[in-house]
Amino acid sequence: MKIIVCIKQVPDAKDVRLDPITNTLAREGVQSIMNPYDQYALEEAVRLKEKCGGEVIVISMGPPQAEEVLRQAISCGADSAVLISDRAFAGADTWATAYTLEHAINKIGSFDLILCGKQAIDGDTAQVGPGLATRLGIPYMTCVQRIREASENGLVAERMMDDGFDVVSVDCPVLLSVVKDINEPRVPSIKGKMKAKKAEIVKFSAQTIEADPACIGLPGSPTKVVTVFPPLARGERSVLTGTLDEQIDQLVKKLTPYL
Amino acid sequence: MDYFLSEEQQMIVDTARQITDERIIPNRAELDEKHEFPRQILNEMARADLFGVPIPEEYGGFGGGCFDIALTVEQLGRGCIGVGTAFSANFLGVYPIILAGSPEMKEKYLPDVATGKKFGAFGLTEANAGSDASGIQTTAVLDGDEWVLNGTKQWITNGGEAQIYTVVAITDRSRGPRGASLFVVEEGDPGFSCGPKEKKMGIRASSTTELIFKDCRIPKDRMIGRPGTGFITVMKTLDLSRPGIAALGVGLAQGALDVAVKYAKQRQQFGKPIIAFQAVQHMLADMAIGFESARALVYASAKHIQKHPKDMSKASSICKVYATDVAMKVTTDAVQVLGGYGYMCEYPAEKMMRDAKILQIYEGTNQIQRNVIGQELNKEYS
Predict the structure, then answer these.
(1) pTM score, whole prediction
(2) B-chain residues within 8 Å CB-CB of A191?
(3) Distances from the Cα of A35 to the Cαs of A69, A132, B20, B365, in angstroms?
(4) Does the domain spanning B121-229 belong to CATH 2.40.110.10?
(5) Beta partners for B165?
(6) Domain at A2-258: CATH code
(7) Are B177 and B227 spatial neighbours (Cβ–Cβ below 8 Å)?
(8) What residue segments make up the domains of chain B, in order of their start?
(9) B15/A187 touch (CB, cutoff 8 Å), yes or no
């Protein structure tokens, strides 16, 4: 199987700040990591390759330093990596990102499966995966918790739902976005790290992928961030006191009117 | 402290550190409580190539020496020396093959060890042969094309879990220590079995059993090296492996210091964190001094020993004694810093203290190590 995994470099969630003027994420001095959901997508791709054979190509759109997460992906078992990087891509929203990835994937050529994380932990939109599949004209399935069987022809996968899961059979090529329940990502191996260090990362610019300048980066993004603010704490709070039994009585009294 | 590791060594350390933080530390309390062998964690280590560290490159490893192993097990020891012991004892079992095995034997076993497919154990100790290794009762007699082994080995780490056992047996009693030879016994060989798992004070994640040989028949070519060279190979193996035990002690001391400092910063008494009190500060400072000095000694000794110098026994014993005594002291003090909580199983300090004790006992008690150091000094100055 030829599998493409889309990964994103994101600021480590342990240290997130907003720029008060631009209302965008302040990235200076913040450690960058591979988006955690993408790690699950990558692990699943590597496991499929180990089971069915084939190759895993990782791609990432981002600044030059996003090369770090691509090398990390190679250390975890990816075969090759493409960095889609150009100043012209800066400021892209999910629409422009999906457009850019679509063009990059068309440049790579044919594939059987695209795997993405459910969402990125910085933007949290979960839109790029479905947007990309729609542009490529292939089916997609979100929140995949397990791939039961897979081949170049098609696969059977479980889609997580609020009340259980759906079992879906789908033809390839297809795009899946995965949740963290799907696997436990491996620790990169020493040989993998050595390979990653030497690996050549292919670079795609706006010109390489023949992108329309009007559709990429900030100019190509219909989304405008007007303001960003932490949600206000709402509702009244009260702390119950007394013995446990007394507190339970009070709680029942408080809740009864809502039943 | 920065030890200016090579890029490859840093990769080894980072890999072992990640396994320790993500796989060992979250599971160590449960493994300890259930006396459970860490099969899954070892599989993960194998997949991350850690089993290849000391295996020569021509057999699929990285050809690392004592120092590289010390760097690896130090990280594991920071999480759990039970897991670290299982990992280290594998190499203790395999080292005689690396040192004295024939090319065919190396070809047969080492590639599978490098990938973690096969796991090793080392059978030297017996009921009446511990510190005095010359009291070995297990015998091997040649019968046609086969060696026939009889006897029982005691307290063998990885017993019942390993596939490859290197076993010391007497082939010519009249020659004393020069009558001992080394053999490879495989899991499933006829007449070979392992006893039940021993219950231990600490390092409960590691498996410890008897190895029982009752007319155990193995092919003639399973002898490691020549007849009568068993002891020489065993002594050399132990000289090379002791810095690994010392490194487990360094890692354990680091783990205990981490727990103690974090607790001392957070625990409030008399309106301030207890780290603000000089009595606690001085204990923590002494723990740090012990740990850092042990680490410096272990690193220097491991680098020295991997060149197989003349004084390797002395250097190996010195670092083993010092680092493991430090580990015992630092873990005991960590329990003290945590006070009542330190004594409770809810916190990791008590397990660390229980675990530390074995480091002063196995692979030659610290008293025997001091004998070795004293005897070597006596020789050097004669």
Answers:
(1) 0.88
(2) 49, 52
(3) 9, 18, 22, 49
(4) yes
(5) B121, B185
(6) 3.40.50.620
(7) no
(8) 7-118, 121-229, 231-380
(9) yes
Query: Tokens 């599998």 belong to which residue?
Result: A3
Question: CA-CA distance, B312 to B121, in Å (whole number)?
Answer: 23
- Pairwise CB contact (< 8 Å): A190 & B52: yes
* Overall CATH class of domain B231-380: mainly alpha
Fold type of domain B7-118:
Butyryl-Coa Dehydrogenase, subunit A; domain 1 (1.10.540)
Q: Is some CB atom of chain A closer than 8 A to the CB atom of B146? A: no
Q: Write out chain B's pLDDT in tens, 382 residues.
A: 899 999 999 999 999 999 999 999 999 999 999 999 999 999 999 999 999 999 999 999 999 999 999 999 999 999 999 999 999 999 999 999 999 999 999 999 999 999 999 999 999 999 988 777 678 999 999 999 999 999 999 999 999 999 999 999 999 999 988 999 999 999 999 999 999 999 999 999 999 999 999 999 999 999 999 999 999 999 999 999 999 999 999 999 999 999 999 999 999 999 999 999 999 999 999 999 999 999 999 999 999 999 999 999 999 999 999 999 999 999 999 999 999 999 999 999 999 999 999 999 999 999 999 999 999 999 999 8
d(CA B227, CA B205): 35
| Structure tokens, A41 | 């997508």
Confirm if B240 and B123 have CB atoms less than 8 A apart.
Answer: no
In the block, which residue shows the tokens 């691509």?
A70
